[in-house]
Amino acid sequence: MTTTEKEALRAHVARWERAAPLLQQVRDEDIRAADTAQSMKIFSGSATWAVTHRPADPTSGLVEQQRWFMKLRHCQ
Predict the structure, then answer these.
(1) Low-confidence stretches of the chain (pLDDT beneath 70)
(2) What is the pLDDT of residue 44?
(3) Rounded distance, CA 65 to CA 30, Å?
(4) What residue ranges do the domains of the chain occupy?
(5) How far is CA 25 from CA 7, 13, 20, 22, in A?
(6) What pLDDT score was predicted for residue 31?
(7) What confidence score (pLDDT) does residue 25 get?
(8) pLDDT score recorded for residue 14
(9) Is residue 67 exposed (0-12), middle (13-18) or buried (19+ Cβ within 10 Å)?
(10) Gap between the Cα atoms of 54 and 36, Å rounded
(11) For residues 52 and 36, what is the distance between their CA atoms, to the nearest angstrom?
(12) How many CB atoms lie within 10 A of CB 55?
């Protein structure tokens, strides 16, 4: 690594060190301003819809996975 590249890297790290407290402040403000109860209502509604409109597959897929493993074993 050349001296110029090292200096550029140090400058980049210094910028992130200065930005870190500001980014943390923004993150903290976002967390404080979040309406967790409203978000949970929204997300639970979509999960409920998915359960009622997209039932689970009849099998877990393990049998199919084992078939693939056997095919791969025979290819070696």
Answers:
(1) 76
(2) 86
(3) 43
(4) 1-53
(5) 28, 19, 9, 5
(6) 94
(7) 98
(8) 97
(9) exposed
(10) 26
(11) 24
(12) 8
C-alpha torsion angle, residues 25, 28, 32, 37 (rounded to 10) = 150
Record the tokens describing residue 3, joined without a space.
Answer: 């001296």
Q: Can you give the chain as a three-state secondary structure string?
A: CCHHHHHHHHHHHHHHHHHHHHHHHHHHHHHHHCCHHHHHHHHHHHHHHHHHHCCCCCCCCHHHHHHHHHHHHHHC
Distances (CA, A) of 34 to 25, 31, 46: 14, 5, 19
Residue among 30, 11, 7 at smallest CA distance from 19:
11
What's this model's pTM, rounded to 2 decimal places? 0.48
Task: Determine the Cα–Cα distance for residues 13 and 54; give it in Å rounded to an integer.
Answer: 48
User: Which pLDDT does position 54 carry in this prediction?
Assistant: 80
